[in-house]
Design brief:
This protein has two domains: about 5-65; about 70-285, Uncharacterised protein PF01937, DUF89, domain 3 (Rossmann fold), CATH 3.40.50. Helices cover about 50% and strands about 10% of the residues. The protein has helices spanning about 5-20, 25-45, 50-65, 70-95, 100-110, 125-130, 140-150, 160-175, 195-200, 225-235, 245-250, 270-275; strands at about 135-140, 150-155, 180-185, 210, 235-240, 260-265, 280-285.
Amino acid sequence: MKINYECGACFLRQAKEAMDLATDDEDVKIELMNDIFTYLSSNFYKDTNSNKTGSTIHSMIKDKTGCYDPYIKEKIAGNEIALKYLPVVKEVLNQNNSLENHVKIAIIGNILDFGAFTLDTDVGSLINSALKRDLAIKDINEFEDALKKYDEVLYLVDNTGEIVFDKLLLSKIKQYDLNITIAVKSKPIINDACMEDAINVGLDEFGKIVEIGAGTVGYVDSEISEEFREIFNSHDFVISKGMGNYEGLTEIDLSDKEVFFLLCSKCTTISKNIGVNLQDMLLLRNSN
């Protein structure tokens, strides 16, 4: 997905947040913001790739501060929030064990995104509210058809915390006798899940965990490893979690695949792109 004018303010907001987490040195922050202004002045155009731009800004912050995982405390907090609400969502599934409800719970997990929300956001209240709402787009019949049609699926995870809820959907998918490959980031980026995070919550119980070969905001096709490209190309059925993966995957040709995007739309740019309201949750099949 390409940027629009609103992305500029978001890049700067997230840059400030990452800098505040990475260092207390005000002089370094001034230098960094100057560097980011310079970078954006040469790279902020209508056809610019949003994921690659955001990834570059985060790399600039890491390199100058020497802090390569600024969101480590937020990742821990995300897991704590997910674990706190896990009994609640399990009770929901006890009352309604449908595939749609499992999908909904996995999408609610996508709310746990400190890259999209400010640090003082009351995430707990957002989850409680989301549990009472229906999906704005729910291509659930097509999704179940794909689960029955294919022998294997590639599951692109998003954030720590969120992956706790992903386990519930992965468990449901297993009932369809699919082989699951779970893709994580190779290096820390915002609060996205890496290999250690995935193993710590037990995702390896449901399938093989692989790394995409990069630590980028969402999926950036030019940055993935050749090893992961082979894995991606070999899968006809892909489940994509989160906004970053949606932004990245919509930049490439998916005509030979069935891709299902599971996300909560947390920015107006993506909401307009899809045609939904802010904070809407959706299960969207790509139109290949």
